[in-house]
Amino acid sequence: MYSQEEIIKAHGPFVPPAGADQHFLSASISTIEEFPSILKAFCDQLEPAHQNACYREGGWSYRQVIHHLADSHFQAFSRFKLALTEDNPTIKPYIQNAWANTADSIDADIASSLAILEGIHTRWTILLKNMSAEDFDRTFHHPEQNKDLRLWQVLGLYAWHGRHHFTQIQRHASNMGWVK
């Protein structure tokens, strides 16, 4: 699981550091690498009915959160590949709430998204571990934010993103007595 310091960082919005040093990159890559196994170990403790639980009123179910993680991290991996192979490409945003409310996000068992996360994170980790410092400075343009994002910033964001959603559902499940 995550340390208390990592859990505290995951609570609240992502705050990027001023720059990317080797410690930040290594820690973020390790988080990306370890995330699928941490999430799977948590999910293995849940009963199938828990997939439909919501961690807060009006929020997504655990099922929707896990499918969202697969959708979102797939997008991030794709954006990395675009930025590494094109000059500051403009990415296509997507409406996360709409994606979370499609039939597959509402009805599919979480095992499919856990498998997607394992595969994506395995490939993403290989990619990340073979990137140079110059590669991490490459950018893509996010039209909704109207800014160029450096890959090191996006790496930190997605390391935080997984921990953030994991912390939300893990705290709820722990408070309910469903997990240790």
Q: Short description, anyone?
A:
This protein has 180 residues and is mainly alpha-helical. The protein has helices at residues 4-10, 22-43, 62-85, 96-100, 103-107, 111-129, 133-136, 151-176; strands spanning 139-142, 147-150.
Structural notes for this entry:
The protein is 62% helix and 4% strand. With 180 residues, the chain is mainly alpha-helical. Strand 1 and strand 2 form a beta hairpin. The N and C termini lie close together (11 Å).
Q: Helices and strands: which structural class?
A: mainly alpha
Strand arrangement, largest sheet? 1-2
Q: For the record, give the distance between the C-alpha atoms at the N and C termini, rounded to a whole number.
A: 11 Å
Task: Please report which band the strand proportion falls in: under 5%, 5-15%, 15-25%, 25-35%, 35-45% or over 45%.
Answer: under 5%
Q: Secondary-structure element sequence?
A: HHHHHHHEEH
Could you list the spans in which at least 5 consecutive residues all have pLDDT below 50? none
Number of strands: 2
Could you say which overall geometry the principal axes of the C-alpha atoms support? Answer: globular
Largest sheet: 2 strands, antiparallel
Number of helices: 8
Provide the residue-averaged pLDDT: 93
Helix content: 55-70%
